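Structural prep section.
Before we set up the soaks we want a predicted structure of the protein with zinc ion in place, mainly to decide which crystallisation condition to try first. Input record follows.
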Amino acid sequence: MGINITTTEKVKKYLKEIEKKNKELNIFLEVRSEKELLEEARRVDDKIKSGRSGRLAGYVFGIKPNINVVGLHASCSSKVLEDYLSTYDATVIKKIKDEDGIIIGMVNSDEFACGSSGETSAFGPVKNPINPKLIPGGSSSGSAASVAARFCDVALGSDTGGSIRNPASHCGVVGVKPTYGTVSRYGLIDLSMSLDQIGPLARNVADAALVLDVIRGKDENDSISVDVQKLNLNELGKKKNFRVGVLDLEIKDKRIQKLIADKLDEAGKKYNWKIKKVSIQNVELAIETYYPLVYTEFFSATRKFDGRRYGKKIEEACGPEVLRRIIGGAEITKAEHEGRNYHLALRVKKLIEEEYESAFKDFDLIVSPTVPRLAHKIGEEITVEEMYSYDALTIPSNLAGNCAISVPVGFVDGVPVGMQIMADKFNEQKMFEAGAMIEKLISEEGRG
Amino acid sequence: MVKIGLEIHGYLNTIEKLFCSCRVIHGKKFTKANVNICPICTGQPGSKPLLPNSNAVKKAILISLILGCRINGEVVWQRKHYSWPDLPKGFQSTISGPHATPNGVDGKFMGIGIRECHIEEDPAAWNPLTGEIDYNRSGSPLIEIVTDPDFSSAEEVVSWLGNLFSALSYVKAIDKNSGLKADVNISIPGGKRVEIKNINSLKKIKEAIEIEVLRQEKNLPRVEETRTYNEEKKVTTLMRTKDSAMDYRFISEPDLPFLKIPEEVIKKMKNSIPELPQEKIKILIKKYKIDKTYAEILTKKSSLVELFEETVKHVKPEILIPWITVELLGVSNYNKIDVDEMEINPEHFTKLLLAVQDGKINELKAKEILRKWIESSSDPSGEIDSGKTISGAEIEKISKEVLAENKKAVEDYKSGEKSSINFLIGQVMKKTNKRADFNKTREVLEKILGK
Ligand SMILES: [Zn+2]
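Run finished without errors. Recording the tokens verbatim:
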């Protein structure tokens, strides 16, 4: 990508696509003015010509609306914040701008990142570009869809329980949940502070790796953040020996399980990977552990939206899923419960974290489907439990604080399916290398 | 017997706020509204706390040590949720609540048990009349000191608070300019505990306690309640009862790492604490053989005792003491500036007093120099040189001129009105530009006039 086409031409092309299809797909909530964008693109092209351009020169970004970009609306796809104009740039945005990336606009998402289908947005559901009747997944619905619809090169999303990987899987793009603490959350509007991470969505593994390499690293504005080594992007796509664990878990949709198993099998043969089953005992506790944490922390994080400063009072202006979580959080945190549920959840989180750490002594990677279900039709009634089960395989990585990527590996019933490749904390290098190898395998099959 | 306990809030003396780099400068006297602010202390969506200001944490531990507390090296921040216009994040960051281990616990200071000491952040300032919010103080570090209900009278409370603040000003842990706030809880035998919230001066604390005790004696409290003191009407009024007590829904702060202050650091701080006023008084009396009254005045302010101990190396205590306790404090009072805020360099002070002690300049001249040292002292050498006292012969010459010019005063003196000599001395001083020695002038004048 980016070869033989100027940034200016590319921005024009994307603007045209957005103009043509955004109404139907409902991906972008806000697109910057053409004049401003083209001026910026010209400046980048000048820099490229004179050889002074940054690492993201030529890349056009869509941004999830829970990330602050000065002068744009960080609405969180909610009526609560629909008039909230960011007064400052999130650290990740600063880094993208410093490396000459262009932000084309703010995409749609689930409201306050609460949702797994992209349907909870106050501004209407995002449609899946592969099949507009289907949900794109969530909560970074617009981020995944914008990349799949070729409205931009890459997008930023946030992943608390699968919110990047889940829509990446449903939309057939690459999505990365980085190791907790490696990407600054300064400027990310909170869902669950113990779990939230910002990450990239892209049409290929190399782009996702490049973007992550730029945005990660210690930031004093996020006290939890830590320093990391630079990724070695030249190693991507090279053949490597890996010890791979396949998550030993029966899922309901055997077609998904089979597709992942087949592709992994092929990879094992082609790349000489050692593949074994791995069982994580506590993985069944993931959803039960996840929701008390999310409810509690989301309740706390949304206390500032009391209608006094930023638009509307959240309880009065939000949708049912957001309200469910706030009410749940208010209940869990009541003094009479003495913090039991929250602290119990934190303890189980720690157990899950330790179990994964010990599994990664025997394996470089743990592989599973990204999502155990196929995308449903927009508007189709499903229960809360069914909705929450979408995230059963992605939540563990957030609880364990490690990293995981979703790479598209094919279709079931015409619906994209992603393979989740998880690596131990701070092992993004391995994760990307394996992801690039799977990507290569699939693309070679496509050609063959 | 009445039982009284306190929750005292004071501003920790730091340059920056607790979780951002904004300056701790607030109050109409010092700055305009909403200047020292940023996304963090105004709680912008998506902002996160910086690591807590380490000076604030150190000072909180220092205070805990001074109050004889056991120190908890583990600092686990908590979110205390409540909804109020002055609270931009919808919660206050604090080290209190059911899941916290306060910075210091189980102390004792001057006979009063200290339950705990902990840091917390100040909310913004909200004006209910205009609805305006000034975020300058939002996020400033506060210390909260909770005592046991060991007081039994308003006088006891006020005198203890005085001692507390002078001890804390000794180690420069508290910013006294920003004042104190206290919640006072009071119970009388057979009655329930009543808390009076947010009283902001010693005078009001005293009044509120006295008024509340009288009220309770007339009307024994049957339920625990929270009241507020109305200064104009001199009454306390009900805010809420225990049944409607707030649930702050405390949780541990997920955006800050667990911090641990190493044992050695705490030990080092413990050893660095200077002697506090009560010990210092004894030392001053013993070492310099000075009166208890003066020792008490000197130890009230850390700056005074420091100045005394430096200057006394060169100047005799009997000369030095009145220059500090009368003259310097006089300048401070006259200019309404806290003597701790006047930067008096002990070297300058020594030079000035040595010049007096050696008779180079007279006291009037020295006072004139001292009076210019309002915000800070300056090297007095130049003024000492130009203000040197003049010789006896010269005084005699000028005295004669003065007597010749002031016949009326001379007659008065001779007819028995001895006080008129003061007028004549004044005239000599005026003519010599205050360079004549006061006692010498009196001597010369008396000699000429004949006793
Ligand atoms: Zn600030």
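Observations: The mean pLDDT of chain A is 96.
Flagged for discussion at group meeting.
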